[in-house]
Design a protein that fits this description.
single chain, alpha+beta, RNA Polymerase Alpha Subunit, Chain A, domain 2, four-stranded antiparallel sheet, 5 helices, binds zinc ion
Length: about 270
């Protein structure tokens, strides 16, 4: 297996993975979406809410505020030694809001969520939660915990995790007269026509739409789009709670654990 990053920031990445197959890529994708734990607000205690939003809608909106996740300190509630339904410092983080509009309309932002532990703070300070008219107030305590995307989508640590086959575009130079029709039709602009020569750039952008093949007036076509069955381009966008590196590392750890469990079951059966 060969892995190479095409581009990467702390929260987004595109990587080429070679020497694997669809079941492996799909397992990786599904584990990232549904099994890598992340932090989200799960319960709130409303002390005062005179805003236009009722408590349930407020709780729902707060649940979807992405929080920084600390997987080294916090436990999943099910795996926490406290075994308490109320949680402890190792499986629950508290955030509070106390905002009042005085003489003008005030927007409550995610920055108004004040964390007890600064490591579990909103990823962005600019997420609007609600608006308060003069004299309206929100005062509440919110409890965040680790959870998995398969329980509720608010615990999904990524906004995007998708893969596609690595594209292969072949131009038959004997047949091609560089009419340029394929260059004009390509929606991703990956083809070039320089001095009557069709060239390819940014091959990773190709979506395998095969419009270029359809546009080619030659029969058989002078351009052919296929894909490598054992190479994939994986795109990941973290919601900011975990870095892309950590997401990949955790997903592989989970996949490894699943394979080991499966092997153990097989040997037990024997
Ligand atoms: Zn606990």
């Amino acid at each position: 297996m060969k892995v190479r990053f095409v581009d990467k920031t702390d929260v987004t990445a595109r990587l080429i993975i070679e020497g694997v197959d669809v079941p492996f890529m799909n397992a990786l994708r599904r584990i990232i979406l549904t099994e890598v734990p992340s932090m989200a607000i799960d319960e709130i205690v409303v002390l005062e809410n005179s805003s236009i939003l009722n408590d349930e809608i407020l709780a729902h909106r707060l649940g979807f505020v992405p929080l920084k996740t600390d997987l080294d300190t916090y436990n999943l509630p099910k795996e926490c030694p406290c075994k308490s339904e109320f949680g402890c410092n190792l499986c629950r983080a508290t955030l509070t809001i106390d905002v009042e509009a005085t003489d003008s309309v005030k927007t409550v932002y995610s920055s108004d969520l004040v964390p007890n532990n600064p490591d579990i703070a909103p990823v962005s300070n600019k997420i609007p939660i609600t608006k308060l008219a003069p004299d309206q107030r929100i005062r509440l305590e919110a409890y965040a915990r680790l959870g998995k995307g398969k329980e509720h989508v608010k615990w999904q640590p990524v906004s995007v995790c998708a893969y596609k086959y690595f594209p292969k575009v072949k131009i038959n130079e004997k047949l091609c007269d560089a009419c340029g029709k394929c260059v004009d039709v390509c929606p991703k602009r990956i083809l070039t026509n320089v001095e009557k020569n069709i060239g390819i750039r940014n091959i990773t952008e190709c979506t395998l739409c095969q419009d270029c093949e359809d546009a080619c007036p030659k029969d058989p076509t002078a351009i052919e789009v296929t894909w490598d069955k054992n190479a994939f381009i994986l795109g990941i966008e973290s919601n900011g709670g975990l870095s892309v590196d950590r997401l990949l590392f955790e997903s592989l750890k989970i996949l490894d654990g699943k394979a080991e469990n499966f092997l153990n079951l097989l040997t037990e059966k024997k």
